[in-house]
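Title: Comparing notes on inverse folding

I've been comparing how different people in this forum approach sequence design from structure. To keep things fair, I'm posting one structure and asking everyone to reply with a full sequence. Here's the target:
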């Protein structure tokens, strides 16, 4: 039985520009490393490390959680290197953005959450925190080699493959408050949280005093399915009152809008049905 030996050099820059310079120098022979949990998982599956690892652990300004106010805008700024466990247990997140805490609770095992970072989960592109972040209208901040920019997470996920960036943080705007709100995060897996999910569904739905839906965000992901919002379903729901006809239309719209990937365990149809049933159930609960 042969033993594979890790043959990679680890670089530890102390600022963003230094990290970026190293990435430009080594390019495809390198990668940024946050908590390293994804690399470890890939290594265990036989995927080799790139020969040059650029650790972000010592880069200043990438860790921490700050509740900020700019004019009339209030938001939470989370550094990309902030541990998942720290996010889950932070009192402000548990109070004002509890959906993120709920989602992180269902990511892998405690040991992984103690090492993994919010930035690593998002930068991966398939992280289980992403559906929850999408329903909270999260933004990301990133360094593009010249300056730090901010962009809606939804847009960034759709364009990230076209540009090389270094993720620096996640920004959560303060919730818009409807009279009645339901929020949910459901990770349906083959077994406990250690496995990849069959499907992950998250939503925030609000209605006003007369029962009209005035806010809706729905997102889906899980496994090899890239997380994204269900915008056609959102559009169907906004400014409507929940009733049996609307629920039937929502169910059919989800089946038509969501196009998951099949694998050896579950078909694309099964994933669609699970997603539609979860959202149907949550809307029925809000109706009551």
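Reply #1:
Here's my take.
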């Amino acid at each position: 039985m042969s033993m594979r030996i890790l043959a990679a050099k680890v670089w530890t820059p102390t600022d963003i520009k230094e990290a970026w310079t190293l990435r430009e120098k080594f390019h495809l022979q390198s990668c940024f490393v946050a908590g390293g949990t994804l690399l470890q998982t890939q290594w265990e599956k036989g995927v080799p490390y790139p020969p040059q690892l650029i650790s972000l652990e010592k880069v200043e300004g990438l860790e921490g959680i700050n509740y900020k106010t700019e004019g009339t805008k209030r938001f939470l700024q989370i550094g990309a290197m902030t541990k998942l466990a720290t996010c889950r247990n932070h009192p402000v997140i548990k109070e004002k953005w509890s959906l993120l805490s709920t989602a992180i609770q269902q990511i892998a095992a405690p040991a992984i959450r103690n090492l993994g970072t919010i930035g690593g989960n998002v930068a991966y592109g398939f992280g289980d925190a992403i559906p929850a972040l999408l329903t909270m209208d999260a933004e990301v901040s990133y360094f593009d080699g010249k300056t730090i920019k901010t962009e809606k997470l939804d847009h960034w996920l759709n364009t990230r493959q076209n540009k090389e960036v270094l993720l620096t943080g996640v920004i959560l705007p303060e919730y818009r408050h409807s009279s009645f709100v339901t929020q949910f995060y459901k990770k349906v897996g083959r077994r406990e949280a250690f496995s990849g999910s069959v499907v992950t569904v998250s939503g925030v739905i609000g209605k006003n005093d007369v029962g009209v839906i005035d806010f809706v965000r729905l997102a889906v992901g899980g496994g090899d399915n890239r997380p994204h919002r269900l915008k056609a379903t959102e559009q169907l729901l906004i400014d409507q009152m929940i009733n049996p006809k609307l629920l039937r239309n929502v169910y059919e719209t989800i089946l038509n809008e969501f196009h998951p990937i099949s694998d050896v365990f579950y078909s694309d149809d099964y994933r669609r049905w699970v997603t539609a049933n979860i959202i149907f159930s949550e809307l029925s609960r809000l109706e009551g």
